[in-house]
Each structure stands twice: as C-alpha cells, then as structure tokens.
Specification:
This protein has 365 residues and is an alpha/beta fold. Helix content is 40%, strand content 15%. It contains 13 helices and twelve strands. Strand 5, helix 3 and strand 6 form a beta-alpha-beta unit.
C-alpha cells in the first residue's frame, strides 16, 4: 500500500517550511568545533529548509558534490532518468554527509553509533581524520566486509545479537555508560540536515525534474530530501525493500509501527521502525512510497553495473523504484545511494587511508 499522494502543488500550501535547526545557536565552522559538547537530539528541532545550507557549508571540506549522471537507456525507462551518483561520495555512500554534519556540530571527542555498515564507515572515516574515539554497533547479519572496513579505519566494532532495533538499544546504552555522543544513522536532526544536501544538489542541478526517487532505510535521506523539496513542485517518492516496508505500513496505520527483523539483499535498508524525527517530516511531505522485491533490486543493480555504475544492492533500490514507474515517462532522478560493493570494501580494508586523510585536510580552509 502506498502513502497518500499529496495534492495541490506547490507543497507549501498548508505546510509550513521545515528545517533542522539547533535550539541554541552554535556557530557553524568548516572544521571541528573548538569546544566539545554532548548535545542530545532533543536539543534540536525540525523547522524548515534553511539549515541544509548551513550543513552544506559545514561538511564541504569532508564531502564531494556528486554529479548527476545519465541513467541507463532501456526500452523500459527511456532516456529521461538521471542518477545522483552518491556511490562516488567519500566513503562510498551518502552517509558521509550526515555523519560529518553531526560530528562537526556536536564537537564530541567520543562517539557511538549503530549501523548497518555504510554509516559506520562514514563515521569511522571522519573520526580517523579528526582523531575521535568511535564505537560502532552492528546488528546480526551485518556484512562482514563492511565490519572489516570499519575496523580498518580504526573504529571499535561491537556485534549486537538481534536486529536493527536491538542494535540501536545497545548503542544508546554504550553511549550513556561511557558519556559518548550518540550519533544514529538516520534519526537525528543534524544527520537529516546533512543527508538533505543530496536533495538540495539534485534540485539545483535539475530544477525541472518531475520526480526524485529516494531509497528508504532509517529514513534520514528521504526526510532530508523532503526538507530540500519544501516549496518545490517535484514529486518525492520513497522506495523501500518489500521485505522491510516500515514507512509504508506506518503511514497506512497513522503512526510508527515496529516490524520484525528481516533480511534483504539491500543490507543497508533493514530498519524496523520509523524514527522520531524522520517520521513526521516524511509523513507531511512525501508524495508516494513504493516497495520493490528482491529480484527487482538485483536486476536494477545488474543494470547499473552494465552501465558502468558500481552500485551495491542498497544503492540500486531507488533505480528499481524508478524502473517500476517507468510507464510515467517522466523526467526523474534516482539516488544511487551507495557503492560499497565487496570488491570496493576489500580495497579499503587492505590499503591505508593515509592519502585520503591528507587530501581531506588539504581541502580544509
């Protein structure tokens, strides 16, 4: 079942602009804040799209502005599909954006997170650059190659016994016990604002598109794109694996629902419950949600690989959604959210990141 489609574009009608803004204004800096501060997510509020610009400036030295690439032209999707190439992002996924924004704004020396892999890699990468202590809690079934990459980047890895919900509970407990800052993979206003810069770039580079397709796991990327699209007539469509349709079911129920742990080839999109911060943003702005099957995800990944785009299955989910809706013959962008394939992770694990770290520091003002 899909979420109700919003009517009456543009989206501002009856819908106040929303942003992710600190309750107490802390000056944004391009580098790490001088004074550490363990600020809980409750100290931040969701207001409107202005803070995506603040996030973009903050994370610029640590991320790249990824291009829009021509999508594969097939008899199904035609020539109208573009790809937002987040598989080319530093650390191999869009997660670098939210991780950098949260760490730099919070200024903590010790960080704990729960991750399916890519968020942990992104945090481990920036923690290594800034000299932070990082603990990453992984759920059962996390990809061994991603765990190895996180360890190779210098972070401590803790294996939880259950699914994503158990992982988050374990990570929060470790953070509370140690006094470290907890930086979740999706459900934090600073993370959402960082991920929202994907949407800002898409709408800047392709302002006339009809639809943007966004993969949905925890919901941080989709919520961020919804923020970026506030006041813009673009349709925002979230794409979930059919085995984990937590947002589809929650919007149908009218409240967040908890799903049991599930396995999917899209290992980065195994979230069980919508987040406290992500759910209301998505509820109020998303236009539609679609669920794609395992075969569709693998077919989309294979199509991308044949087109020269080395996406992992999670990174191909939005393309699978776009292919499902190809009969619309629309001008669309699908976010290729990650490219941490086994081969790429093996390279990361077996080589040092000295050159990459030096490059980041060289880019800093």
């Amino acid at each position: 079942m899909s979420a109700p489609t919003m009517s009456g574009r543009p989206a501002t009608a009856g819908r106040p602009a929303t942003t992710v803004r600190p309750a107490a204004g802390r000056p944004a800096t391009a580098g790490r804040p001088a004074a550490p501060a363990a600020v809980p997510p409750s100290a931040f509020r969701v207001h409107g799209p202005a803070d995506l610009a603040v996030a973009a400036a903050r994370i610029a030295p640590y991320t790249v502005r990824t291009p829009l690439l021509p999508g594969p032209t097939t008899s199904v999707c035609g020539p109208g599909l573009l790809l937002k190439a987040e598989h080319l992002q530093r650390g191999g996924s869009f997660k670098a954006r939210g991780a950098a924004n949260a760490v730099l704004a919070l200024g903590a020396d010790r960080v704990v997170t729960g991750s399916s892999g890519n968020h942990g890699i992104a945090l481990a990468r920036i923690a290594r650059t800034l000299g932070l202590e990082l603990t990453v809690v992984l759920a059962a079934g996390a990809a061994p190659a991603k765990a190895a990459a996180i360890r190779a980047l210098g972070a401590r890895v803790v294996q939880a016994g259950g699914g994503v919900a158990d992982r988050e509970e374990r990570a929060r407990a470790i953070a509370e016990t140690t006094g470290a800052a907890f930086v979740p993979s999706s459900d934090h206003p600073l993370v959402i604002a960082g991920q929202g810069t994907v949407g800002t770039e898409v709408l800047t580079d392709a302002p006339d598109i009809d639809t943007v397709y966004v993969p949905v796991g925890g919901g941080g990327l989709l919520a961020g794109v919804c923020l970026a699209a506030a006041g813009h007539p673009v349709r925002v469509v979230g794409v979930e694996p059919a085995l984990t349709p937590r947002y589809t079911r929650s919007l149908a129920a009218g409240h967040p629902v908890l799903l049991p742990p599930a396995r999917t080839v899209a290992d980065g999109l195994r979230g069980q419950r919508p987040g406290r911060f992500t759910y209301p943003v998505i509820r109020d702005r998303v236009d539609d949600l679609v669920a794609v099957g395992e075969a569709e995800i693998l077919a989309a990944a294979a199509l991308l690989h044949s087109h020269g785009v080395d996406a992992e299955p999670s990174g191909a989910v939005a393309v699978a959604g776009a292919l499902r809706a190809a009969r619309r013959r629309e001008a669309a962008v699908a976010v290729v959210s990650g490219g941490n394939t086994t081969a790429r992770l093996h390279t990361l694990t077996t080589t040092t990141t000295t050159t990459e770290t030096a490059t980041i520091r060289k880019d800093m003002p």
